[in-house]
Each structure stands twice: as C-alpha cells, then as structure tokens.
Design goal:
Length: about 240
C-alpha cells in the first residue's frame, strides 16, 4: 500500500472516478488530502482533485471537502465532512456518518445504506440516466456476480456427487467383504458354507482322506481360512470336539 499527500485548501472538491475495491473518506483538520491504497491514479490540475484505483482507496480530507463519487465496485464509507456529497453507483454497502452538508444519492446502490447523523439527504435517479461507460460497468458487475453464483452451484453439485460416490464405494466394499468372508467348503463328504470364526456343525467319525486335507490346506494357502479355522476343520472331520 502506498501513501500520497496533496496540498489543498480547506474546501477542496474531490472527484472519485473509478474504484475497483472499497472506498472510504474521513474528514480531518488539515488543509491537505492523504490517499492510501494500491495502484492509485490521480489528476490534480486545480479543482477538482480526481482519483481512481485498481484496488481499495482510503482518503483523509479537510472537513469542508465536497465529494463527487461516480463508481465504486465495493463498499463505501464517508464520515465527518461538511461539504456536499454526491453518490452515483456503489456495488456494495454504503455507510454515511456525521455529514452536515447536502447528500445526494442519485444512482444505483448494490448493498445496504446506513446513515448516522446525516443532516440533509435526497435520493433519486440520476438525471438523464447513466452514462454509457457507467452502464457498461454495472452490466459487467451483474454478469460477474451471476458467474460467481453459477460456479458456486457447480461446485456444490460436484461435492454432492463425490459424496454419493464415496457412499456407493463404501457400500460396495462392505458387500465385497461380506462375500469374501463366506467360504464354500467341499471336502467330498459334505459341503458347508463357512464364515470366519465358525466350525462345521458336528464332527465326522470317518478318517480324514488326503483329498480332504489337501482341500483344507489349499484354502489355508489361498487365505480363505485362517490357520485356527483349518485346525478346527481338521478336528471336526476327525470327530474331535
């Protein structure tokens, strides 16, 4: 942020042409204007003193300053001044505080207007309508706000879709896990749908054949059952408890 100081009288005229960020001006006792902001553009050839900025602009100006504000994209705060104030287009909110001079609100205000201790104020449409340049800026601002809203809606839809996919994947994994947990045991003598932690329903007194042992070992090797479950299977087949 840069600071620039301009020598003026006690009642200067200040013209605010185009501020692409927020704008504020506060009255003080000095006979000079101090401008603070980034990318400040000014023109001082007698009266008025004109300002534009690609970002925010904050002014401290003599109490008797007259402010003519053409276009501010963001919020506006004007306070502690005695001169005439004219406000045309403001994209955001407007705060007017401790103003004893005539205040004219003759353009479009995009946000809320708050007034505290404002002596005289008149509100109405700009005479002759908005100039072409200002109208184009307003249209651009409306279009930009619309695009931002559309982007937010698309982002929200994508978040919802990603959440739905996560839920579907979680359900699929749960079903796959349940399916893998079930093992169809076929030893030749009997068939049994085994789940982890369970044992065959009852023992079998006949000797365990090599094919049955191989079937159990194969399931153990393929990690379809644990070593503990394999041992239980063998014990059950041999008639143990």
């Amino acid at each position: 942020m840069t600071t620039q100081t301009f020598s003026t009288g006690l009642n200067p005229s200040i013209k605010i042409e185009n501020i692409e960020g927020d704008f504020s001006v506060t009255g003080w006792d000095r006979s000079e204007v101090e401008a603070r902001g980034d990318e400040i553009r000014h023109e001082q050839s007698g009266d008025p003193l004109s300002f534009s900025s690609a970002g925010d602009l904050n002014l401290s100006a003599p109490h008797g300053s007259a402010i003519a504000l053409s276009y501010v994209d963001g919020d506006v705060k004007i306070e502690n001044l005695d001169g005439a104030i004219t406000v045309s287009f403001v994209g955001g909110d407007v705060l007017l505080r401790n103003l004893s001079g005539q205040v004219e609100m003759e353009g479009a205000i995009g946000g809320d207007v708050q007034m505290e201790n404002v002596g005289r104020i008149s509100m109405g449409a700009r005479k002759g309508g908005l100039d072409a340049d200002l109208s184009a800026r307003i249209r651009n601002k409306v279009d930009e706000a619309t695009r931002r809203a559309e982007r937010k809606m698309r982002d929200a839809e994508q978040k919802i879709r990603r959440a739905e996919i996560k839920i579907q994947n979680a359900g699929r994994k749960a079903r796959d896990g349940e399916h893998r947990a079930r093992v169809n045991v076929d030893t030749g003598r009997w068939k049994w749908n085994m789940t982890p932690g369970s044992v065959p329903p009852g023992g079998i007194s006949e000797p365990v054949s090599d094919e049955e042992r191989m079937a159990i070992l194969k399931m153990l090797q393929e990690k379809k059952i644990t070593s503990e479950e394999a041992e239980k299977l063998l014990t059950a087949l041999e008639g143990g408890s």
